Amino acid sequence: MSNASVPTLHPTEKNRMKLEELKAAESKLLLGTYDRYPLLFERGEDVYLIDANGVRYLDLLSGIGVNALGYAHPAIEKAIAEQSRRLIHTSNLYYHEGQAALALRLTEATGMDRAFFCNSGTEANEAALKLARAWARLQREQGKPLGTKFLALENSFHGRTMGSVAATWKDKYREPFDPVMPGVEFVRFDDVADLRAKFSTEVCAILVEVIQGEGGIRPVSKEFFQAARDLTRSTGALLIADEIQSGMGRTGKFCAYQHYGITGAPGEPVSTGWIQPDVTTLAKPLAAGIPLGALLCTEEASQAIHAGMHGTTFGGGPLACAVALAVLDTMDREHLLEHVTGIGTYFRNRLDDLAAQHSAITQVRGFGLMLALELDSADLAKTVLGEMMQRRILINRTSDTVLRFLPPYILQKAHVDTSIAALNEVLAEQTAQAAATPFPGGKKIGN
Ligand SMILES: Cc1ncc(COP(=O)(O)O)c(C=O)c1O
Questions:
Q1: What per-residue confidence (pLDDT) applies to 41?
Q2: Would you state the pLDDT for residue 13?
């Protein structure tokens, strides 16, 4: 058969076929853990993901909060290239230059004293849970009463390993694997009275996402966070802030807990400090997509851990540490905390404007570039996400009715404007369609 007789496929068709082939192959070869969208990306650039046909998608999710510097950032390319030529892995049996340098930067940024490096968010939380148990044991050995129980919050998400998932609220993540780690009790979100009622010397740690991410971008109140701090101080239990989604500058501060200023006694001015937890965990954007997690803690808490008690083969390897240092340098050089605050405020204001125009939006939440629109129906949220994808803008839906935005820190006003215009158009279309559909047979949107 001559080449001339082979039909030439349009690139879009080629891409679709490749996608179909991949879907078929994955459905046979992989565990069915993921329900993927029908998108196949080949590369990324700046704030865009690009498919095989060169079609660009504005990415307002950045790999679920990971690609904070966007795609193909030259500083990251350089760090990966240089470090991979020198040393990628040594194990934790030997020294390399990266861990202490990175620990210094992270402890300075978070107000902590010591670091432990691992490979993911759930591992960082797992380390935090183990540290809390070891800490409580040490207290008991010294004659102080401190139990083994954890308090976590309703709607929390802390990861998928047996410890972290035990502290994760939704049954669907825990129940198939029962029995998960015992000893976790859930406190109603932001309910100080419930927290007080459930707290006792039996509790070795309270685990809090300062802004719940998967739970729908819900910041805890200062009152609640302060109560958690006061209660843990009163018994010597640890306060653990999970900043895996909210940390590393996502909200305009290095950690979200740094928004929670300490109020002096009544009548005294608000101090410039913040409510400092004993332990915090970071991951997602820490090494710009190279897997890396970190637990950071106070000197005191760190005393509970000795050589051999905990560890990892890969965690804190030379490559991941070099890239994380490049991320921190870039954040400083490009003044990204200030930029996140500025562009985040602009984005938030535009979302508030949108909410004023569309009654289907029930709430706007978050700060910095950790933002959400809550809609009045899960179906509408699903439709809006799909319609935005058609318009080549990637967003995410969490907790059924919440549209979540976790864009790269390098987002610009023009990207916000494009996204808001698209959201406005989609919501207006959906409202018009709902109005044209005879009610009650159709679905009513907004008022
Ligand atoms: C707040 C929080 N903690 C923990 C995790 C788990 O991180 P990983 O998926 O890297 O294990 C996530 C992931 O979404 C998260 O948002």
A1: 96
A2: 73
Q: Which atom of ligand 1 is nearest to the CA of 246?
A: 1
Is any atom of ligand 1 closer than 6 Å to the C-beta of 214? yes
Binding site membership of 126 for ligand 1 (Cβ less than 6 Å): no
With a 6 Å cutoff on the Cβ, whether 125 touches ligand 1 is: yes
Per the CB < 8 A criterion, the answer to whether 369 and 340 are in contact is yes
Residue 276 Cα to ligand 1 midpoint, Å, equals 21
How many angstroms does the Cα of residue 366 sit away from the middle of ligand 1? 18
Mean pLDDT taken over the chain: 94
Q: What pLDDT digit, counting tens, does each position of 21-46 carry?
A: 999 999 999 999 999 999 999 999 99
For position 229, what pLDDT does the model report?
97
* pLDDT tens column, 363-372: 999 999 999 9
User: Which atom of ligand 1 is the closest one to the Cα of 284?
Assistant: 10
Q: Which atom of ligand 1 is nearest to the CA of 64?
A: 14
Please state whether the predicted TM-score (pTM) of the whole model is above 0.90.
yes
For the stretch 2-18, pLDDT in tens is 455 566 666 677 778 88
